[in-house]
Amino acid sequence: MNKISLLTILSVFVFCSCSKSSGSGGSQSTLPTLSTNNVTNSRTDVGTVNFRFFITLSNSYTSDVTVAYTTVPGTAVANTDFTPVSGNLTISAGQQSGYVDVPVLGDSTRKNNLIFYLIISNPVNATINGTDTAYGTIKCNGTYFPVDTTVNGGYLSPASYTGYNLVWSDEFSGKTLNPANWIYDIGNGNGGWGNGELEYYTNSTNNLFLSNGCLIIEAKNEVYAANNYTSARIKTEGLQSFQYGRIDIRAKLPVGAGVWPALWMLGSNYSNVGWPLCGETDIMELKGGLNPSQIWGSLHWHNNDGTEGTENATYQITPGDFSQQFHVFSLIWKQDYIQFLVDNTPYETRYKTDVTNGVWPFNASQFFIFNVAVGGNFPGTVKPAVYPQRMIVDYIRVFQ
Questions:
Q1: Considering the entire predicted model, what is its pTM?
Q2: Exactly one of 197, 199, 218, 285 is catalytic; which is it?
Q3: Is residue 285 flagged as an active site residue?
C-alpha cells in the first residue's frame, strides 16, 4: 500500500470518528418529557392570589419547546372562584421550565376547599409522559355553611309599603361586609361591655362572614385574648344613621344556653353624651337557653336622677323557637312614638308621655348595632357544649 492510500484511509477514519462523537453529543433522538405540579394555596377575602403552575422539562433541549395549556373547572367555578386561562407556553432552547399563573378570586364566603385543573397538551419538541393534569386546590376559610332564605324558611316582609320610600338597605349580597355601611367593635369592652359578657369581639371571618345573601355572626367557644369565647359586633356609627321610619330586619336567631343575640340602636350623639343619655332602642334581644321562643323589645333612657330608665316588652311564638325559621323584627318610629312588631304583628307601643322621669331621647337620629354576646347579666348560664351559635341576618331595610 502506498503512502497516499494510507493517508486517505487514516483521514477517513479520523473524520468518521469525529463525526460519530459529534453526533452523540449534539443531536437528540429522544425528546424531553414535560410535567407540571399541583398547587395548593389559600384565597383572600378580597383581591386575587396567583396560583403558579410550573411546567418542567426532564432535561433542556436544543430547540424551543411549546405546549398548550387550559384551565378546567372542578368544584371551583370559573369567573367566580378563579379566572380561566389558556394559551401556549414556550420554554426557550437551553431552558428547562416555564410557568402559568391562574388568578384565584377573593371571597370571604364560608366554603369547603375547592378544586380546578390545569391541563397541558399538544407539545412540540417534547412529550408528555404520564399525567397531563395538575390540581389547583383553593383553601377556603372554613366548612361551608348553607343558608336557606326562601319564603318556606320563615316570614318574608314586603319590599315596599304604601306611603313609604326605601331610603337605605343592606341585603348582604356581596362577598364581604360593605365598609360604607359597617364598622367593627373589637375586644371585650369595659367590664364585658358593661354587662359582664364573656366574649371577645373580632373582625375575623371566623366570627362574621357572608353566605348566600346573608350575614352570619358566629359565637365560638375558643380562647382568645384571655377570653373563652369569640364573636362579632358591627355598627353603622358614623356611616348610616336615621331619624324615624319603618325598619325591617329579617333574621334567624341562635338560642343556645347563654347566647345573647341583639339587633339594636344607639343615639348618634353617643360618643358625645354617653349612655343612657343618648337613648337605646332594642329592636330584638333574646335570652338563649332561658326562653328561646321569646324575644324582647326595649327602650332605655336617662332618668332625672342619673339612673337608667327602662321599658321592656316581650313577644312569644308557639310552637317552636326563633332558631327554626326566619322572622322579621320591625320598628315603626315616628315623632314621640315607637311601635315594636314581629312578622308585622305589633306587640308593644310606646309614647313620649310614657317617660315621666327624664327626657325622651328618641326623636333624634340613631345608628344600628348587630351582635351576638355570650353570657353576662341578661342571658343566664352558658353551656360551652352548645357552641358555636349563629345569628343569620337576611336583610335590613329602612323606609321613610
A1: 0.76
A2: 285
A3: yes
